[in-house]
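Before surveying the methods themselves, we first show a specimen of the format, giving the amino acid sequence and backbone structure tokens:

:::
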Amino acid sequence: MNHNMKNIRNFCIIAHIDHGKSTLSDRLLQATKSVEDRDFIDQVLDDMDLERERGITIKSHAIQMLHETNDTEYVLNLIDTPGHVDFSYEVSRSIAACEGALLIVDATQGVQAQTISTLYQAIDHDLEIIPVMNKMDLDNAMPDEVEDQIVDLIGCKREEVLRASGKTGEGIDTILQAIIDRVPPPEGNPEAPLQALIFDSIYNSYRGIIAYFRIFNGTIKKGDRVKFINTGHEYEADEIGVLKLKMDPRKSLSAGNVGYIISGIKSAKEVKVGDTITHVDNPCDKSVSGFEDVKPMLFAGIYPVDADDFEELRASIEKLQLNDASLTFEPESSAALGFGFRCGFLGLLHMEIVQERLDREFDMDVITTVPNVSYVAHLKNGKTIEVHNPSGLPEPNDLEYVEEPYIKGSIITHPDFIGPIIKLIIDRRGELRNQLYLTSNRVELSFEMPLGEIVIDFYDKLKSMSRGYASFDYYQTGFNTSKLVRLDILLNGENVDALSTLTHVDNAYPLGRRMCEKLKELIPRQQFDVAIQAAIGSKIIARETVKAVRKDVTSKCYGGDITRKRKLLEKQKKGKKRMRQIGTVEIPQSAFLAVLKMD
């Protein structure tokens, strides 16, 4: 049965991590009887254990609810969005598939930075915004203050802000009513050529890749020949349907609806979020705008701890890529670590999650090298190359200049913490652009800084400085020239490539010194002296020595001539020298990890 278009409502939920988005969607599902009580578990939409533990939504989901009011049955399509800054492109596609958005704000915490950036995206797409204050049941809720913030932010009337509690279920019916009254029904022509936007895809080991889409124009029937415009592939629609808790097959779906398509696609690369589906025979004249290939912002090497596990690691990463299409990888080798992969991630959280999942779902022990961003190197002969790996940076004498990616960031925090946070931004080569008081006890700092400076531990530092009261959001703005050098670590004159990092000239000396000191603590003493050096090109900037373990060879000489002692010591020295030529230094696993977590 195809519902009348004016009875369809497509909406998403915008909320900061931990503002109760998943709990609230649970209540909506229960209120509309979309979930049988016996099937109900908390956070119904978060499938991965990891999502539940961390309380974050990693993959977007979609679910259809039916709600009857005044004898009319309405179809409510909830398109869930990830809340974390790493996944902003996926959020933008989910927003493009909707006509309305619930803006959920925790009544105890107020508006946060990430909520604001997602909200602006929603406003750009002309979504109808329904503001909701959640967690009203808590004693420390500040409804009036938070209501002021919301009114300032979106310029709505006070009475439009709904009050609710996902925990007690208060206000859920008003929210459902507001969705029906305020969110406009979808527009579009069911008779026009098919035009549907893919906003997400998931991998199913039996059925292949399942794409979730929203139809803007036209009608799709089971068995139609369809093509994906941006990738150019053609498929047959083996099965189409709507998304309830389980997939619910249908014969046809028309404009305004949200559904899924299964067409036996095996490779995640063929289905790209943001692509447009149309018919092969009667294609639409243009695709839904805003499509882009997701580019990784962050690169790191992933190596098996045991070199024999290389093939197994490859298989694991390939499987992981099936339900995480934004992960990219290519083989690389390192003299210190053997064979592994250089992987591209959307951001630090994404990298952490990939590591966790490798460990949990595939039982892989891996070493991850220092994460770095991608740089653009301009050579003297006029060529430009992309550098994803410190050892890929050309020699200084071939290099004209290097550009690194910059971001525009905003931090919202309490005025008490402004001093240390500004210092942190400036220490990380950032430039403050603006500071704006949102209310008397919330201030927004806008700044620009190199992406590479955020990668290591900017976020942790920010959280500890502000006792958790700062929220941070950023987007990439482009590339700027900067003076970068490659810092190499040498052990007995041999370069350990896995410990190389690209860093700004001003940071190179202190960083080199700290790395040498750290390695001195961690490398076990050998039978010979180990020289640990930090170098930029051929210039050594820091050195530490791990002293050799010595056996007292002169203990059996008592009295007598000094030359006997000399002879024995000389002999020992020769042995040490020979040993040093053939001996290699084993770097313990802990040393790599410790260098990653410097400071």
User: Anything to note?
Assistant: Residues 43-48, 50-60 have pLDDT under 50 and may be disordered. The chain has five domains: 5-182, 195-279, 298-371, 376-482, 486-596. Residues 376-482 form a domain with the Alpha-Beta Plaits fold (CATH 3.30.70.240). The first strand starts at residue 8 and ends at 15.
